[in-house]
Amino acid sequence: MPQTAPPLSRLPIYSDDGHVHVVVETPKGSPNKYAYSEAFGAFQFKMVLPEGTSFPHDFGMIPSTKGADGDPLDVLLLLDAPAFPGCVLEARLVGVIQAEQRERDGTWERNDRLVGVAVKARTHAHIHALDDLRPGMLDEVEAFFGHYNQLAGKDFRVLRRGDAEAALALVR
């Protein structure tokens, strides 16, 4: 009898060589936000961004983790070309944007964004720390998340940026 594969949200956190697994939910350039639904075992359409707005990089989750918001940890993924929803790949974490967002009920909730580089990426192979990113890139990403949350009726504020060790500590 064939074994059933676990849901994407329950895959192992780490690959055999110690990198983290990432499940892409929304590809770079997409104006549509998708999120994996364990209940459906599929990707669910969440919202469409305004005309001319799109995700600046692939966005997904690290399976078998749980952030302060109760969802798997979010990861912004640097890759040579956009992947697709459901693509599983290995990444090395280079940092974290520690942030919180105000929910519609007025409460503030932590919702950090890990930053990772696909292990097999070529154009981003030199990136091992947030300082290796081009100047202004993190400011642009933070502005995107601020705007994105505003569209969903939430506020988003960055608390601080952390290095790769801070990102790995969140995963642990």
From TrEMBL:
<dbReference type="Pfam" id="PF00719">
    <property type="entry name" value="Pyrophosphatase"/>
</dbReference>
<dbReference type="GO" id="GO:0006796">
    <property type="term" value="P:phosphate-containing compound metabolic process"/>
</dbReference>
<dbReference type="InterPro" id="IPR008162">
    <property type="entry name" value="Pyrophosphatase"/>
</dbReference>
<dbReference type="GO" id="GO:0005737">
    <property type="term" value="C:cytoplasm"/>
</dbReference>
<dbReference type="GO" id="GO:0004427">
    <property type="term" value="F:inorganic diphosphate phosphatase activity"/>
</dbReference>
<keyword id="KW-0460">Magnesium</keyword>
<dbReference type="GO" id="GO:0000287">
    <property type="term" value="F:magnesium ion binding"/>
</dbReference>
<keyword id="KW-0479">Metal-binding</keyword>
<dbReference type="InterPro" id="IPR036649">
    <property type="entry name" value="Pyrophosphatase_sf"/>
</dbReference>
<keyword id="KW-0378">Hydrolase</keyword>
<protein>
    <recommendedName>
        <fullName>inorganic diphosphatase</fullName>
        <ecNumber>3.6.1.1</ecNumber>
    </recommendedName>
</protein>
